[in-house]
Design goal:
four-stranded antiparallel β-sheet; Alpha-Beta Plaits; 94 residues; alpha+beta; single chain
């Protein structure tokens, strides 16, 4: 059905087996240029917001890599300019 068309070099770097290690939830900080209004901030439920001109800083828990990409896609879809993303640590570090 599906054929693997990748070279051996690619297949060796990405083994087919799963080692059982799960991505841990982490806290992230997103710095966005400008002041974000309350209406737009409401689309980022679960994040704390702080305005430090000239940026708005969002901090909060991100469950996994897919959720991180979802936040980044939301920032882009809203036409916001992302200045910096910083991982603050896993939730177990808190």
């Amino acid at each position: 059905m599906w054929r693997n068309h990748h070279t051996i070099r690619v297949r060796l770097r990405h083994p087919a087996w799963f080692d059982g290690v799960r991505v841990q939830s982490s806290r992230y900080e997103f710095r966005i240029r400008g002041r974000i209004g309350e209406r737009l901030l409401s689309t980022f439920g679960g994040f704390d917001a702080e305005v430090q001109p000239p940026e708005t800083i969002l901090r909060g828990a991100v469950a996994d890599q897919a959720a991180l990409h979802g936040v980044l896609e939301r920032i882009e879809a809203l036409g916001l300019e992302l200045v910096e993303v910083r991982q603050l640590g896993t939730l177990n570090d808190q």
